[in-house]
Specification:
The protein is built from seven helices and eight strands, in the order αβαββαβαβαββαβα. By secondary structure, it is α/β, with parallel strands linked by helices. It has a six-stranded mixed beta sheet with strand order 1-2-3-4-5-6, with helices on both faces. The protein has a two-stranded antiparallel sheet with strand order 7-8. α1 (13-23) packs across α2 (37-45).
Length: 212
């Protein structure tokens, strides 16, 4: 999920925490675009577990780092991006794989190239409008025996509470997260087709604010 530290989101850290409390989430991953500032701000005020992450734009598409200690700069090659995630003890997840359509996803060839270093695959992304793309992501994960996550990829508070993972045994470490998510129950509900309209509008608002 995202905060206003992403260029296409207007959700404040406090609004995010309040919504998570309302829907009963007790563990979230905040993965702003090329930033961990939002995740750190949420962690500071949240009464629940917050995983520090970022959706990092590599030269071939986005790669998600979880359990980050510091931001990995955008614009690096996929393998260098992954190397910097791993150097700080983080986990590597492939977000909305193979989707295209302006979502900066890694293609299948690149994903295969970095596969030995991948920890997780987003098998269901609520913002992926083509159900076939989610099915392809799951099939890829099953084929290569990688844990699957279901993610809201929320850029608005309304998106929170429908798509999530339910698991036990997580103690705050990356290793326990992998074990817990492997046996998780996934709840998968596609977001409204209008969510990308909201994101586009958010980009204009963010640009206007930055201009002024």
């Amino acid at each position: 999920m995202h905060t206003y530290f992403s260029y296409d989101c207007l959700v404040s850290p406090r609004a995010l925490v309040e919504r998570c409390n309302d829907v009963g989430f007790n563990c979230i991953a905040v993965t702003d675009h090329n930033s961990i500032e939002g995740a750190l701000a949420v962690k500071e005020i949240a009464p629940f577990n917050v995983i520090i992450g970022a959706e990092i734009k590599s030269t071939a598409g986005e790669i998600t780092g979880l359990f980050l200690q510091e931001i990995v700069p955008p614009g690096l090659s996929p393998i260098e991006t992954i190397k910097r995630i791993k150097e700080q003890g983080g986990l590597v997840s492939i977000p909305h794989p193979f989707t295209g359509g302006g979502r900066s996803a890694l293609n299948k060839s690149t994903t295969l190239d970095v596969l030995p270093y991948v920890d997780l695959i987003e098998g269901f992304n609520a913002r992926t409008m083509n159900a076939l793309d989610n099915r392809s992501a799951k099939a890829f994960a099953y084929e290569h025996q990688l844990p699957i996550t279901a993610v809201s990829d929320a850029h608005t508070t309304r998106e929170l509470g429908q798509t999530y993972n339910e698991f036990n045994g997580y103690d705050g470490s990356p290793e326990s997260f992998i074990a817990a998510i492997t046996d998780a129950n996934r709840y998968e509900i596609a977001a409204s087709k209008f969510v990308h309209v909201y994101s586009t509008l958010n980009k204009f608002v963010q640009k206007f604010r930055n201009f002024h």
